[in-house]
Design goal:
Distance between the termini: 69 Å
Low-confidence stretches: none
Radius of gyration: 22 Å
Order of helices and strands: HEEEEEHEHEHEEHEEEEHHEEHHHH
Number of strands: 15
CATH class of the largest domain: Mainly Alpha
CATH topology of the largest domain: Transferase(Phosphotransferase), domain 1
CATH superfamily of the largest domain: Transferase(Phosphotransferase) domain 1
Number of helices: 11
Number of domains: 2
Structural class: alpha+beta
Largest sheet: 8 strands, antiparallel
Length: 384
């Protein structure tokens, strides 16, 4: 009764609702308007098209509740010009103790200036703002909860140039953009930026000079190798694409160190997921696409399903909508993962062993050495 009595008296901001976003109707559709003074740009105006068909939401009882919506802004258009595909705003509740995405992107941009594999392959952050009034922490403090700020979240809004999803691609174009993202990820990892959340939703692309440019996106769960501060409580990664080591009970308790090979394994699961569930860039109808259950299973159960799938991939019939060269590549990728898993098991290799740059290079090279990787690479244009 006390709880119900308390909830009854909550104001909007007590529920985590930010009142700075004002509802407004534009051409018969609900949008939200946000304006704020900025030291460099003066007044920044954002019109968030929250009813747009391309809005992406991630709601749940826990997590960041990330929303990505198309956005228009006179101030940002005046500064950057008009982008052909427009802009998007990413709004999410990030853990206050974790290094913020804008801070990580600043480091990423510095690396891009020195490495061609990163330059043009990272998201273009146009503007950002942090709301520093976490409601949950204030409630826990008022209730006398010990360490009330532990796990508290703050609201971020980031505006980016809009990118296109990798799921639109198939065949050699899919392989090309995916491979570009791997090269970007490798350089960032060696330079101390560990992505740790490789999933199809974070692999994007755009056109530049008639070429499809892959972009490794979404750094809000990334970490910096030289950051000795707290990493937050949130487990990083999206279950269907996590490496098998991280889907074990030990991995879910945070007892397995997240290594480069775990992220590269996620890349392999990503391309298998896209290839099996999309036909010429379109999602197959429910009932005709495999692996749906992976998105709803618990971590350890999903890990067992993935291990079984990985072991029998070679015996599956080739789907009619997948190019034979790409199917051979998928079989080789999952077969190579199987081989590495067995070798680590046979050698009784600790899951928390350190990785050197040579270890990282050798792990990636083992996939590049497959005949199917070489065959797909021949179909791509020579880099200019």
């Amino acid at each position: 009764m006390v709880l119900l009595h308390t909830l009854q008296r909550f104001e909007l901001h007590d529920w985590g609702r930010n009142k700075d976003f004002l509802p407004i109707e534009v051409e018969g559709k609900l949008c939200h308007e946000f304006k704020i003074k900025d030291e460099k740009l003066g007044e920044v105006d954002l019109l968030l098209h929250t009813s747009h068909d391309e809005r992406v939401t991630h709601y749940g009882l826990q997590g960041r509740a990330t929303n990505v919506v198309p956005v228009t802004s006179e101030a940002l258009t005046k500064k950057y010009g008009k982008f052909e595909d427009g802009m998007v705003a990413k709004i999410f509740w990030g853990e206050a103790s974790r290094t913020s995405e804008p801070e990580i992107l600043k480091k990423v941009e510095e690396i891009a200036k020195r490495h061609a594999t990163v330059q043009d392959h990272i998201p273009e952050l146009l503007w950002h703002h942090t709301f520093t009034n976490p409601a949950a922490a204030a409630i826990r403090e008022a209730l006398g909860v010990p360490e009330p700020t532990t796990g508290s979240r703050v609201l971020y809004i980031l505006v980016f140039r809009k990118l296109l999803p990798i799921t639109q691609l198939h065949g050699k174009e899919l392989f090309d953009v995916w491979r570009q993202c791997i090269s970007c990820h490798l350089t960032l990892w060696k330079e101390g930026v560990h992505h740790r959340d490789v999933s199809p939703g974070n692999l994007m692309w755009y056109w530049k000079d008639g070429k499809q440019i892959g972009v490794l996106n979404d750094y809000d769960l990334s970490s910096l190798a030289d950051d000795s501060g707290p990493r937050g409580n949130e487990r990083t990664g999206t279950v269907p694409f996590l490496a098998l080591d991280l889907l074990t009970e030990e991995g879910q308790r945070g007892e397995v160190k997240h290594l480069y090979r775990h992220d590269l394994e996620s890349f392999m699961w990503c391309i298998a997921w896209i290839s099996l569930r999309y036909k010429n860039g379109d999602l197959l109808p429910r009932g005709l696409r495999p692996l749906d259950e992976w998105a709803t299973l618990g971590a350890t159960t999903c890990g067992r399903d993935k291990l079984y799938f990985q072991g029998r991939m070679k015996k599956l019939p080739v789907p009619s909508y997948i190019d034979s060269s790409l199917w051979a590549f998928l079989v080789d990728c999952l077969g190579m993962l199987n081989r590495h898993t067995f070798n680590r098991w046979a050698a009784d290799t600790p899951t928390n062993c350190k990785e050197s740059d040579s270890d990282i290079d050798a792990f990636l090279q083992s996939f590049k050495n497959t005949e199917s990787w070489a065959e797909l690479s021949k179909l791509l244009p020579e880099p200019s």
